[in-house]
Amino acid sequence: MLRGSIVALITPMTASGDVDWQALDRLVAWQLEQGTHGIVPMGTTGESATLDTGEHLEVIKRTISVVAGQVPVIAGTGSNSTAEAIHQTREAQKFGADACLLVSPYYNRPSQEGIFQHYKAIAEATDGPLVLYNVPPRTARDMEAETVARLSRIDGIIGIKEACGDAERVGMIRALVDDSFILLSGEDAQTFRMMELGAVGTISVTANVLPAKMAQFCEVFLAGDIEQARALDAELQPIHEILFVEPSPTPSKWALFEMGMIDRGIRLPLLELTEANRPELLARLRAVGALSS
């Protein structure tokens, strides 16, 4: 079952913007060492929008290879083209992905019926478990709770990453779907509330930088120690905030660069973190022990 802290993995790049394959291997291995509960390669945080199809699939394949079954790998295979999403999902399934994460179609601005038919077509054309992904700030279309409920009844669709911006949406969905349908937070700052309402974990940006602490937060919450989880959430909130001070994954990649984990590369149209925001990011990383000096 998909649960706990699942990292929405960044894609490390050289200063020139090439995928840094050796750094990717190291980063995945570090996530495993730190106790992360699952890995999402090629989500939004992985800069899937600016990697070509060959790179996209190779990142997924390589991540699966390094993980070697230790935790679930949920491959990002979504597209605003239904045919492309089917292609990428089939390929990821051939590589051995445990599930695929599919963002709701962006830019096209489909109706609720169009969203439903998009996911239905993917489910009917592929074999493995599929996780819906609702992030209207990026897609310009909200996938309504009723649409999620309809999709939850299709074989192969097992859950949703919810990032609509309203934590209460999780409660609305929970009331409409079977208990087996998996709800995951897609908003780090709202994860505590979402888990109160029935989410069983998070697909997390912050887990790129603080994988052990995010894993601990999820573990204690799921074990029923809500007050300790609340205290950990309070520690994490300043990091959740600073990692979105500029378009993600810009701050996360700069944090990992400062931590010595990756080179500084990022692809246009995204840019490196501006100098004005670097001191506060470093200060907050030091405050939680992610940087020693």
Give your account of this protein's structure.
The protein has a single domain (4-287), classed as TIM Barrel (Alpha-Beta Barrel), CATH 3.20.20. The protein has twelve helices and eight strands. It has helices spanning 21-33, 53-67, 82-95, 112-125, 136-139, 145-152, 169-174, 191-196, 211-222, 226-242, 250-258, 278-287; strands at residues 4-8, 38-40, 74-76, 99-103, 130-134, 157-162, 182-185, 201-204. It has a five-stranded parallel β-sheet with strand order 3-4-5-6-7. It has a three-stranded parallel β-sheet with strand order 2-1-8. Strand 4 (99-103), helix 4 and strand 5 (130-134) form a beta-alpha-beta unit. The longest helix has 17 residues, at 226-242. The relative contact order is 0.14. The model has no long low-confidence stretch (mean pLDDT 97).
